[in-house]
Amino acid sequence: MTSGKGREERPTWVKVGLWKVRTRTAAWVFVGLSLVVAVACAAYSTSDPFFFFVGGHAVFAALWYWLSIRWVDRHSDWS
């Protein structure tokens, strides 16, 4: 028997975004870590502008994780 929620094939961008991430909790941990790295890089970028670039990528990573979590919640499941 199925759980009532249909399971769709995950798009490539979701598969890549959640590569080796098995649970929703782990995915949210990565969102939080990415945001912490982004804030730390923003603070340190006042002395080294390169870290502004690194922090931007961390924000992008957090957004990608969040969108991937959202897609799985709406179209699939975490099993």
Pick out its properties.
mainly alpha, elongated, 79 residues, 0% strand
Note down, in words, how this protein is organized.
The protein has three helices and no strands. With 79 residues, the chain is mainly alpha-helical. The protein has a domain at 23-72. Helix 2 runs antiparallel to helix 3. It is elongated, with a radius of gyration of 15 Å. It starts with 11 loop residues before the first helix and ends with a helix.
Secondary structure tally, helices: 3
Tell me the series of helices and strands, N- to C-terminal: HHH
Distance between the termini: 15 Å
User: Which range best describes the helical content: under 10%, 10-25%, 25-40%, 40-55%, 55-70% or over 70%?
Assistant: 55-70%
Q: What percent of residues are in strands? A: under 5%
Largest sheet: none
Q: Average pLDDT value?
A: 90
- Poorly predicted segments: none
Tally of strands: 0
- Name the shape in a single word: elongated
Rg, Cα atoms, Å: 15 Å
Q: How does the helix and strand content classify structurally? A: mainly alpha
Summarize the structure.
The protein has three helices and no strands.
